[in-house]
Structure prediction request, 492 residues.
Amino acid sequence: MRPVSAIDPIAPLRLGDVPAFAREVDVVVAGLGIAGVCAAIAASEAGAEVVAYERAGAPGGTSALSGGLLYLGGGTRVQREAGFDDTPEAMEAFLRATLGEGADAEKIAVYARQSPGHLDWLEAHGVPFEGRFHHWHDREPPDTSGLVFSGGEDAAPFAGTIPVAPRGHHPAIPNAAGGLLMESLLASLQATPAQIISSARVTRLIVDGPRVVGAVVREEGAEVTVRARRGVVLCAGGFMFNQEMVRHWCPEALRCSYPVGTDNDDGDGIRLGAGAGGALDNMAAIECALPLTPPRDIARGILVDGKGDRFINEDTYQGRIGQQALMQRDGTVFMLCDEPNYKVHYYGMQLAWVCETVEALAGELGVPPANLRRTFEDYNRHAARGEDPAFGKAAEFCVPLTEPIGAYDLRVQTAIYAPFTMGGLLTDIDGRVLDPARSPVPGLFAAGRTTSGFGTSGYASGISLGEGSYFGRRAGEAVATEAVATEAGDGG
Prediction:
């Protein structure tokens, strides 16, 4: 873990420097993406007096602009109705396998166990899901189907060792569903007594000794102080749009031209928490999708790096491909395809080169011709038998390639590499922000991309909205039962 000073923490205001509070509530929520909205709903329904601030002109954040997939499983109603069996144990095993070494095992376990019930909670709060499966992978279906594969569950290296089930849950609207998701949850929040204030930004926390007891909010051009008797929940997004933080922690993301998020993902929530004593975790972790599908038949081609070597099975999750391409292959990747297997790509990607021979294509790509020929021949020899011993691509995609041969240009400077940050404040399963000794910072909670997520070097589409909504909800429930801060400066 790098020193907190590396991110220029925002120092809190001391309670003794606050002459009077303009407002007093039980809970302050900073940020109204999915984590903040679910935190505010849960805290309010638990009986707390809540005020929720959103710095943009309206709530929703990056969540409202997203595809709307939520990674849920373990035997949800949607899975059962769509004809798939799943268990919490299988979901936990997959997440631990795909999210990378050091992923938070405790959070993964509780999330897998509680996932079916969390879907029920989302539905009870207005989010509609249909119990129907769609065959598209790694993106939202073009209809109202409620379930897709979204993490490579049915591909190597997971299929065959972990029971396979789709877990990408899609709200019932064609294509991107983030808008419907957030409209539904916001309607539930508006039905509670919680106060929602937009165009208002939490600029500092207020502390009494080690305890967070309130916040300074810039509202209508003026700064006001708000006392939070039970605590503050930071749900202000990640830091993808803070170039200094990205350059320090995960500079590879700056090479990508399709950053995921909004301008408000500037790291301020993380800096606020760090200033109050919160520890950082997983700050170098990013997700980076390289969308190759639909159609999935594109996986009949072969991915090669700048040396002409294959490095992954082409039918796997686009996030695994993107992460390896950017982080391990220096963003220099091409996909070879022949005329019989050429498909029009959903996002308009077309072949950049077509040559009569592999050697001629190697010259265009700038890779060693002999190495590319060896890769081509080795792949074809096994593909003729429907096999891929190197990476385990499914037999239906193992088709020998022919010459003439073409290639898609998947280099980072030309293709869609879509990164976002996954590191942030260290929290427990109830959203309590932890200090470097892993003790809770009293009165401070966080959820969503402001926190360190599940993954360290892996991802599956829908995890951000899934864990953001679930752990936001848990943080709201926990802060609502937090001991009330004392009126004078004993840190109580």
